[in-house]
Amino acid sequence: MTNSSPARAADRRVRWFVFAAILAAVASFFALAGPPLDVGRGSPGGAGPKPPPLAEDFGQQYTDGGTVSDRFSAFDESSSAIANLSSPLLDALQQAAKDAAYYGIDVVVTSGWRSPQYQDELLKEAVAEYGSAEEAARWVATPETSAHVSGDAVDIGYAEASAWLSAYGAEYGLCQIYGNEPWHFELRPEAVTSGCPDMYADPTLDPMMHPAHAALPQPQCHSPGAA
After folding, report:
1. In the 3-class helix/strand/coil scheme, how is 28-41 assigned residue by residue?
2. pTM, to two decimals
């Protein structure tokens, strides 16, 4: 899954020029769209992502339950949000981050593993923000169904980084799962040979987000240690 052979590297260099044009279009879109919305959230109308403020030094984070104060490196395993990710997901993420860095793309994480308590806090905040559990479910999963709680999801910061992973993530098995959350990536190993599956419009359409499926084993499930 490393995809770092000379042939693949040369192929990515050729495709980089195509990606640069896509990236420019993405940058133009965000410039025209105005101020972005919260990462992991969106306006009730689904206007899009809002990255948190980025400090000069994004190395400082708070690791209680997987909460973070800012974007941080995919290699910072001193953070529970990174250290408690499933090993296959973390390996794929770090390999992708290494390769993206060759092109000047910083793949940084805004959220990784979360404790059930932290996920429950986010859900309550979402219900208060959006006015109903039904609308909140489009943006925040329950602790029982969240891929963040199982250590199987990461949210990526910077529009250029999520755009790069959208274009090349399948080579590492990293896929966008929900159309309304372009920052949210999960591991789908079969994507390396078959490509990423079609995205759900939002989490409410994902069968794994429903109680009947919550008790079933999830792909790449991980039981994280204490935060």
Report:
1. HHHHHHCCCCCCCC
2. 0.69
